[in-house]
Amino acid sequence: MRPLLIFLVCVGIPVLLHGHPGEGIVENSKGEIFFTDLKQVWKITTRGELKLAVPGVHTHELFLDADDNLFGEHLWYNGEARNTWGHYVWQLSAEGTLSKVIPDTEGFLENYSFVRDHHGRMYWADRSTGCQKVARLNADKTITKLGNRCLHNIRSLSMLPDGSVLLVDFQDLKKIDPLGNVQTVAAQIADKKWKSSSADNQNSVMGIWSDKKGNLYAAVSSASVVKRFGANTDGEIIYRSSLPWAPSGGLVDSRDRLWVLEYNPFNAVRVVCVRSSQEKQIFTP
User: Where are the domains of the chain?
Assistant: First the structure.
């Protein structure tokens, strides 16, 4: 066993919290699964075949619209001499045609998001002030800031079927309903001893999602577990990643199976499909 891996196992830290792995994993209407490994996007067919879907793209998030068109980003660094970043937004149509929705642009993506409601409105974290808010791009191109309370360190966002925004505020799981009311679903779901965010722990909770029954889920990467939050629970562990893996995203598919996107300290990515308590299938690019 290599020295770095020995250290990680011995101290019980299977993840690199300084980095930010991809969270993007989605299911289309055919039951096909798409996920990012930060180098490309992969597809798992309904027959369990792993196929390259979009090559050469560095995207953390993915979005599927009602017509099965897949969206993502490509972000790149222009080198130390220029010390600038660039990006574009791509679309893979349901028929398999790849195109650019936003052309090559200098800097980071702004006022555009892969978190969208059924009206097509986009949502993202506005961290421009100490009183952070969730911003929404409306149909008329105006921007509305949501929430009747300040948020402190918005991490991940996800849309719920009723139009509420599910989000991670440092390590608290919260919801903003369509009227703007902020509710804490569960507090400090990663570590009760962490009172404030730091460079080491700010990605302790990553991807969040829901299922058809109304349960909420969170990939608690710092603890290498997935937690489920029902109507009457403070959160139960339903999945544990094996060392040195940790979860960064997930979903519950149309057949009620849990899919977990995982990463490890060596920048590898894999997806685990939990078919039953005794049966799991692992997909590794």
Answer: 3-283
The residue type found at 47 is R
**CA–CA dist 199, 128 (Å, integer):** 18
DSSP 3: H
What does the DSSP assignment read for 9-32? HHHT--S-TTS-----EEE-TTS-
Q: How far is CA 255 from the centre of its chain?
A: 21
90 secondary structure, DSSP code:
E
What strand order describes the sheet that includes 143-151? 122-126, 132-137, 143-151
What would the pLDDT profile of 181-208 be if each residue is shown by its tens digit? 999 999 999 998 898 888 788 889 999 9
Distance of CA 165 to the CA centre of its chain: 14
Tell me: the pLDDT tens digits for 77-95? Answer: 999 999 999 999 999 999 9
Side chain identity at residue 101, one-letter code: V
Tokens of 214: 């109304």
Per-residue pLDDT, 204: 94
Q: Which of 181, 193, 183, 223 is nearest to 205 (CA)?
A: 223
Q: What is the pLDDT of residue 18?
A: 41
CA distances from 226 to 13, 134, 220, 236, 238 (A): 16, 24, 6, 8, 6
Q: Does 3.30.530.20 match the CATH number of domain 3-283?
A: no
Helix (H) or strand (E) holding 162: none
